[in-house]
Amino acid sequence: AAPNARKSRAQIYALHVRFRRLQNHGQFLKMKALVLAAGKSTRIASISNGLPKPLIQVDGLSIIERNLRWLSHFGIQDIWINLHYKPEEIMNHLQDGSRLGLKIEY
Fold first, then answer.
1. Cα separation of 37 and 81, whole Å?
2. Is the Cβ–Cβ distance between 104 and 69 less than 8 Å?
């Protein structure tokens, strides 16, 4: 790997360690996430059956719900979701996020 790549990994690790130290000392970092969920799923139309890509089920869970659970696992509770294709279907599925313990805005 290039020297810059090693440096980037080292910087990422240092941030991770710093975050864990802050977390262990009871300090709280308020993080937010922006989730891009605007895809039409044209390349996977044969399996999407007209659903927006974020709502396609994988092992019983929608793709977007998997991503939101992952964010929640790392303590990110405030989520903004960028929508385009069939936004009402995604909004109806996730609603305000309280079912997942999140605060979702669109």
1. 7
2. no
Pick the closest to residue 40 from 91, 80, 90, 86 (CA basis): 86
For 20, 54, 87, the CA distances from 44, given in Å and listed in that order, are 39, 12, 18
Structure tokens at 61: 């869970």
Residue 79 per-residue DSSP state: E
Look-up of token digits 């396609």: 56
Say if residue 83's pLDDT is above 60. yes
- Residue 1 three-state SS: coil
Q: Taking the model in full, what pTM does it have?
A: 0.70
Q: What is the pLDDT of residue 47?
A: 85
SS3 19: helix
Q: Is pLDDT of 1 > 70? A: no
Please report the beta strands in 1-71, taking only residues with DSSP state E, as ranges in sequence order. Answer: 32-37, 57-58, 61-62
Strand ranges (DSSP E) for 1-106? 32-37, 57-58, 61-62, 78-83, 103-105
Residue with tokens 């130290």: 21
